[in-house]
Amino acid sequence: MSALHTAQSDPLGHALLDYQDGQLDATLTVFSNVAEEEPLPASYFFRSLWEMPELERMALEECRGHVLDLGGGAGCHALELQNRGFQVKSVDVSEGAVRVMQARGVREVAQHNIFDIAPEAGKYDTLLMLMNGLGLVGTLEGLERFLHHAKTLLAPGGQILGTSSDISYLYEDEDGALVFDLNGPYYGEVEYTMHYNDQAGTQFHWLFADASILQDYAEQAGYEVEFLDEDEQQQYLVRLTLRPEREAQNQNAKN
Length: 255
What we know:
Blueprint: H1 11-20, E1 27-32, E2 38-41, H2 54-62, E3 67-70, H3 76-83, E4 88-92, H4 95-104, E5 108-111, E6 124-129, H5 140-150, E7 154-165, E8 189-196, E9 199-200, E10 204-207, H6 211-220, E11 223-230, E12 235-242, H7 244-254
Parallel strand pairs: 3-4, 3-6, 4-5, 6-7
Antiparallel strand pairs: 1-2, 1-8, 7-12, 8-9, 8-10, 11-12
GO molecular function: methyltransferase activity
Keywords: Methyltransferase, Transferase
GO biological process, one term: methylation
């Protein structure tokens, strides 16, 4: 997970830079419209392979070919894949995160919003979106937009590997029934703000897509959906690949 920032407001980037410079207690505060404020230690973005949850380790095992790591943060996934011999490009919208990844040895880094990655930037065999990384799309509308944009980035036979969560449990009443406004926005569209020291970031949207709605949107966009695993926190790992007929249409459109 790496949140959206402007060049002037980058609390995540500053926290990562401070941690990189030796301030090991650097901690962000995360505010949302669905839960109490929570601390987010910068150290979380610097985890080693064996500090990562099982879903992330599984995703790294499932990577293939040329990898595009979206929302790279401090580069923990990109560095692990580099060590395994993969060619990896890691992108993040945070300027500070990009500087940290460069300092840590990620060979190919760029500062991008995920929607601004140009198709001519290359074809990737794996688009990697970890740490609830599918949330980078922001909203269900953003999910639909991203699934179409991803077709311009994927090589033939390419895959999207991502994690997301069902947060419906946040809306349970005392009897376990779900209580939310059916006429309002999708309950998994969350608004966040990050603070670090005296710096407040700009508000951004993050999507937590339950498995059924992710499957609906992906299939409508022409993808095959394979849920690889789920953990005790209702977070899942999914693989999306273009259906053969859609991939053929996609290639014909490019030729």
